[in-house]
Give the backbone structure.
Amino acid sequence: MKKKARRVKPEKGESFTATPEQYHNYLLERDYIQKQARKDFVLQPIGVIHSPFKESAGTPIQPRMAEGVKGSITIYKKFGPGLKDLKGFERIWLIYWFHRAGPTQMMVTPYLDSKSRGLFATRAPCRPNPIGISCVRLLSIRGRTIYVSDLDALDGTPLLDIKPYVPKFDSYRVKRWGWLEKQGKTQAKADDRFEAKTAKKVMEDKNGMVSRLSPG
Ligand SMILES: C[S@@+](CC[C@H](N)C(=O)[O-])C[C@H]1O[C@@H](n2cnc3c(N)ncnc32)[C@H](O)[C@@H]1O
């Protein structure tokens, strides 16, 4: 389908008709956006999370439910210098890719409810861009290894970014927190509902299906 051209006014006095691609190129040529700001958002992991959890079932559903769960993060060499000054923070945000999330779903039944909810009103991993955020406790940093606790991420999770947790920026007193105000469940650990099926599981399901369909 042909992309519709639209009138854009990129800067004072200048105006032209452009497709979104042309406008993007216009911005790139003039250094108005970073060269890396590609439309397809290629992300590069900055490291990898090592945690005791090999699969979703049994993994805490949030850092609050993972108190004392220790793990580490290896930061790739070229990003090592960015760790300077981080050790002064008690907690850090890990921003990561749910690399083992199952297919995207717009309606999900969250762990803390028995009703189906809109994905964006939940923290479920099966997102269009499967990005997770965890505010973990920073224990120590040795070289390019960061030791943390309160981890709710699976072992091998690709890390996209780290930001310091700053109460002044990140903590608000609020009066409403949606459906979670009346949550009926107190589940602390996940099951495999949002996880991509392993080849083994696919085979087991298939075999189960075959034996259910078999006569006798
Ligand atoms: C409910 S999510 C919340 C994650 C994060 N604290 C957030 O709010 O974005 C936590 C669950 O995601 C699942 N999970 C963790 N790391 C994952 C990964 N790399 N791929 C797929 N699922 C993952 C585990 O089952 C874990 O219990």
User: Anything to note?
Assistant: The chain is about 15% helix and 25% strand. The chain has two domains: 10-42, 47-169.
